[in-house]
Amino acid sequence: MRAYCKNCDYEFDFTPKNMADLEKINCPKCNNIVSKNDRKKAIYTSKDAKADNTIIFILRILRLFYLFLSVIGIIGYFNNNTKLLIICGVLCIIIYIIERIFDINYLGLLLISIVVSSIIAILKINKIIIGVFFGICCGFIISTVLREIYFFIINLIILIGTKKSR
């Protein structure tokens, strides 16, 4: 088990033999009594910020890639090119499955928007396969646009909050 001494800023391992040992943990460096709840504070470095920004950038590119593929698929449908619609829909699903395998991202709204838009497309088009792929492309467009609006509003709130606190 790990323990941390606030007095001398020392983190160390110890093995409690019983529950009473958890109440009287002594720092091996300064012999101060240490609380079992004390933890060393993580320091957020510029490398951490760069890594976070890189991940956010990659995820944003993926969202825009979904949007781009879906728009091309919808354009293919309206130009009577069902192969293009199906290819774009399949590519969106494959990339999304790869994301899920690596646990990169999850779009809960995506699943709902795909199902709803597929049902509407099947009812309007009267062709199941074309309706499903049209619904997939529409679902990716809807979820991507709503996600971008959501993050825009969150960033706007953070920006306004930081300006007022200064």
Strand order of the largest sheet: 1-2
Strand count: 4
The ordered string of helix (H) and strand (E) elements is EEHEEHHHH
Radius of gyration, in angstroms, nearest whole number: 26 Å
Shape: elongated
Distance between the termini: 42 Å
Estimate percent helicity.
55-70%
Biggest sheet details: 2 strands, antiparallel
**Average pLDDT over all residues:** 83
Number of helices, where a helix is a run of at least 4 consecutive DSSP H or I residues = 5
Report the sheet-strand fraction.
Answer: 5-15%
Coarse structural class: mainly alpha
Which segments are poorly predicted (pLDDT under 50) over 5 or more consecutive residues?
none
Characterization of this structure:
- The chain has 166 residues and is mostly helical.
- The protein is 69% helix and 7% strand.
- A two-stranded antiparallel ribbon has the order 1-2.
- A hairpin with a 6-residue loop joins strand 3 (25-26) and strand 4.
- The protein is elongated, with a radius of gyration of 26 Å.
